[in-house]
Specification:
This protein is α/β, with parallel strands linked by helices. It has a single domain (27-326), classed as TIM Barrel. It is built from twelve helices and twelve strands. The chain has helices at residues 2-12, 16-22, 62-71, 99-110, 141-158, 172-182, 203-208, 228-241, 255-264, 275-286, 292-306, 316-326; strands at 32-39, 45-47, 55-57, 76-82, 115-120, 134-135, 138-139, 162-165, 189-196, 245-249, 269-273, 310-313. Strands 1-4-5-8-9-10-11-12 form an eight-stranded parallel β-barrel, surrounded by nine helices. The longest helix has 18 residues, at 141-158. Bound molecules: zinc ion (ZN). Zinc ion binds next to loops.
Amino acid sequence: MIENKNTRLRRLRKNKALRDLIAETELSPRILVQPVFVVDGSGIIEDIQSMPGIKRYTPDKLTDYVSDLIKLGVNSILLFGLPSRKDEFGSEAYSKEGVIAKAIKELKNSFPELVVAADVCLCEYTSHGHCGIVSDGMVMNDKTVELLSKASTVYAEAGADIVAPSAMMDHQVSGIRSALDNSGFEDTLIMSYSAKFASSLYSPFRCAADSSPSFGDRKQYQLDIRNAREALREIYLDILEGADIVMVKPAISNLDIVTKARSIFDLPIAAYSVSGEYCMIKAASVAGFINEREVALELATSIKRAGATILITYYAEKIAQWIQEEE
Ligand SMILES: [Zn+2]
């Protein structure tokens, strides 16, 4: 009888080896991506007030940190840049001397095997903090796609394995794909922020990356949290445009999208557990309400179980450390 079998399995769960034997999901450092904030300049490692435990590094200071990540089995990072100078057009995003191009070169020199993904957007680089070129209070889609394509080519040339457009402009993936192909970077992957919901969980990031919009919001180009089918359509369109990896963010509030996307599409799916998710766990644990390690591992495992191939999380380093300690 089915009932008997279930009872038997439950009884046997006091044996850890047996629990491990029948476990359906395993969290491994190899699927983790650590987001990293890179600030222009040299010799600086600074705390980020809105994200306790996370730091900003100048390109020359990154290697020690990344070397520690690699020792823990985390071989992939996602770079976000903080330029020394911002302007209306976000010029530092696509400058060959820009902070991200410098960081990629530095990292690839020291760690050729490291998977380096670079976020591609303008909001960290524009004086107004919007993700694109603004005219009459509106973000100009096509002009922005041109600049995102230019930035992607600069990062690929510096050695990035993956470019990750996050601006949510229409046709940004196809624009970037043809720019990369035309410049001889056919093998550079595109990880698209396909299903990026307009979320209040991004606010600690905006402080960390200094990228809050100075007027309006991003609802014009980010998804409405009420719309699952629209999210799947966005993923589908990005795949048609040539995305190699599709992303869902935030992660915990959109596990249904991860699961649905997993059952429909066969590309790798990245779930991005965003800054607000990190800070909720951090703050509640600092207050003594929850156990940081247990909650972070539990939530990360649930994201994997939902169907994520790749987990981008500010807890990547810690999770890898905890997994190593358990072994
Ligand atoms: Zn942006």
